[in-house]
């Protein structure tokens, strides 16, 4: 096109802003993949918003890359997952 400039439509992304309560840790319920067991955990998000990590009552920890999260629910929508649909 006449007069078009390269790079004019460059996309500017804002940095991820992780709420302070998630950096410090919040209480959540975690369903295990292989059963219907629910475990209370303290969930944290790293300051860059790349990883979720949590610890249970026994101080056992686990880590998950946030891009692998398929679904998250809160309030009245946070019901027990159906068998075969547990994440």
UniProtKB/TrEMBL annotation:
Residues 17-82 form the PLC-beta PH domain. It comes from the Eukaryota. InterPro entries: PLC-beta_PH. This is PLC-beta PH domain-containing protein.
């Amino acid at each position: 096109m006449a007069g078009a400039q390269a790079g004019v439509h460059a996309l500017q992304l804002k940095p991820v802003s992780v709420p302070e309560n998630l950096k410090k840790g919040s209480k959540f319920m975690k369903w295990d993949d292989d059963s219907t067991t629910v475990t209370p955990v303290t969930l944290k998000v790293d300051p860059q918003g790349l990883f979720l990590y949590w610890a249970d009552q026994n101080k056992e920890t686990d880590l998950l890359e946030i891009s692998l999260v398929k679904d998250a629910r809160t309030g009245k929508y946070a019901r027990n997952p159906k068998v075969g649909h547990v994440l």
